[in-house]
């Protein structure tokens, strides 16, 4: 079958078998002419059919819910109680907006995001975005390596560096085996379910939140004193453009078709991802607010993370928390490292297949360098996790700008209703993210430099 989606030299590097979601899409003419069908006539899928289509969102959740997310969520609750619960609302809006904008651009242009950026703005812009996205993922990897080490420390009492090396050896084995996508998807789903059960059981054991304070925290939108940096770290891990952009490449692995934008599959996937992230990280914030905040306990070491589950598990809490952190860290390491390398490869117009030699070697090199940096860092692994999470915010100001520009291109919607609500939401979310990033990084630039 002819692959008309290869409208530019930039998309030529995508192997033909990887173009399933974007095949036969043209850049000129009406939407119906470009897609090859009338999107208004596409039937909505049943709930059962939608469940079969959901997949990339699950992997994205596993990537997002890593040690950094657990640590930052616990900090939000322990440091500020219920006062910052309102941040969950913009996270839901931003997460769905960034993901749906990415999916829409990919289908309407016939190219995944970085290939679309290359088509409209040239190779330099695509490469710059690819590097920024890679760096964001690389910082996330730093937190994940430290986190898996911290989890092993909680479980077995061993040095966190030795624990991290053990998990990295297991990870390297996974990278060298076949069927990576299906294994990652199933493994991450198990980790997600386990974390949801553990933290919600703890909420029940503590008697649940103070609903009056919880409601006040949701409705009073103001930053608690000293909370800005923690809030940025929390937002940048739970709602970043990186997740949506990578989703457009995972869609190739899932064998999505163009019709999935209009039959509800991609929307269901985006909502599944964002809601599952909020359900987990929100529960951790609540547990921190209930268990640690009243006693003025600040998260500065891995052992304090174990205190979160003591009301439910008693002395077994550190071990169970260690298992949760290792599981979260491992799944996030596996998915996030691949994400960074794939996005870098895409920015440079190279092979993006998850099982390609270039991606596998790139992942191993990335892990080796990140491990060296982590082991050279003199502070607590928990501190490194937090600092690395703040640094992950660098991707949104760069790649998000081009996404805003592309989603406003009128030529993409000729003969079709313009998604004005999505355009406006994307613009507002981008401005909000850039504002938070600029202020927080300005305050923490010196701390970030110390990592290196």
The percentage of residues in β strands lies in under 5%
- Based on secondary structure, the structural category is mainly alpha
Mean pLDDT: 79
Query: Largest sheet, described in full?
Result: none
Instruction: State the low-pLDDT regions, or none.
Output: 1-21
Report the strand count. 0
- CATH topology, by name, is Amino acid/polyamine transporter I
Protein name: Metal ion transporter, metal ion (Mn2+/Fe2+) transporter (Nramp) family
Keywords: Membrane, Transmembrane, Transmembrane helix, Transport
GO biological process, one term: iron ion transmembrane transport
Subcellular location: Membrane
Describe this structure in words.
The protein is mainly α and 452 residues long. The chain has one domain: Up-down Bundle (Amino acid/polyamine transporter I), CATH 1.20.1740. Helices cover 71% and strands 0% of the residues. It is built from 20 helices and no strands. Helix 5 (88-109) crosses helix 19 (395-407) and helix 7 (123-156) crosses helix 8. The longest helix is centred in the N-terminal third of the chain and has 34 residues, at 123-156. It is globular, with a radius of gyration of 21 Å. The model is unreliable at 1-21 (pLDDT under 50).
Secondary-structure blueprint:
Blueprint: H1 31-35, H2 47-53, H3 56-64, H4 67-80, H5 88-109, H6 113-121, H7 123-156, H8 160-175, H9 180-205, H10 211-219, H11 228-238, H12 241-254, H13 265-292, H14 302-306, H15 310-313, H16 317-347, H17 357-376, H18 381-391, H19 395-407, H20 420-451
Helix pairs in contact: 2-13, 3-9, 3-12, 3-13, 3-16, 4-11, 4-13, 4-18, 5-12, 5-13, 5-19, 5-20, 6-7, 7-8, 7-16, 7-17, 7-18, 7-19, 8-16, 8-17, 9-13, 9-16, 11-18, 11-20, 16-17, 18-20, 19-20
Membrane topology: Multi-pass membrane protein
GO biological process, one term: iron ion transmembrane transport
InterPro entries: NRAMP_fam
